[in-house]
Amino acid sequence: PLFRRLQGTTRHPLLVHHLHGLSLFDHMAILTETLRGHMSTSLVYRNITGRLPIFWDEQGARFCDITIVQNGRDADVVEAGSRKPVRIIPLSLHPAMAKAQHDAPAMEMRDPFSLLWFGSWVERKGAFYLARAFRKIVDRFPEVRLTIGGSGMIPGDLIGGFDESLRHRITVLPHVTMEEHIAELARNSIFLFPSLSEGFGFALLEAMAMKMACVTTQTGLGGDWLCDRENAMIVPSASSCISLTRLA
Fold first, then answer.
1. CA angle 11–13–16, rounded 5-degree value
2. pTM for the complete prediction?
């Protein structure tokens, strides 16, 4: 509404519409997970509240002077629905992370069986598929352990989605400082990022900067900038059926 009102004036400041990630794709991911029975959503969300952010994304792009997005898929959607300029601007590292990356230990100095997830523990981030994939990974590599950081969840609630026999292999760090975050990225070997929808994927960028081996889907950063087997291992979205020979 503010952009619309200002656009009607003869002189106004540059109106920049910054989209961290299109609500359309987040909503699609949530509805898909709902249909697959991995989560539940209310009728009100499916028909009203889940659609409102999509409407406001569209309105912002319509009445701004320029829209900034963080991945090519979002740029394509906005360009198709608006005549205003669209630019892709990736995220950058926190200064502390940018400094720490120069001292990140080499892979041979880390435990090769240590896995790390960092971020919100929600279905849109691929949490359901990680729990299933972890079961298969443990069957192949019995020494493996998993750390889940920055979820904000009570550990007991989070690990409830894993097989009971695997829970002793999982460490949950609900909240971490920047120093603790950097330490986890430097200690573990493999970063798991099976997200279904991302604007960019900031956590993935941080893991790569700290020289971790990354497993990701083609969303956000993974879709625009990474090549399978060159920068990371690219795996199918919404699937835990990964060829484990590629992890060896």
1. 135
2. 0.90
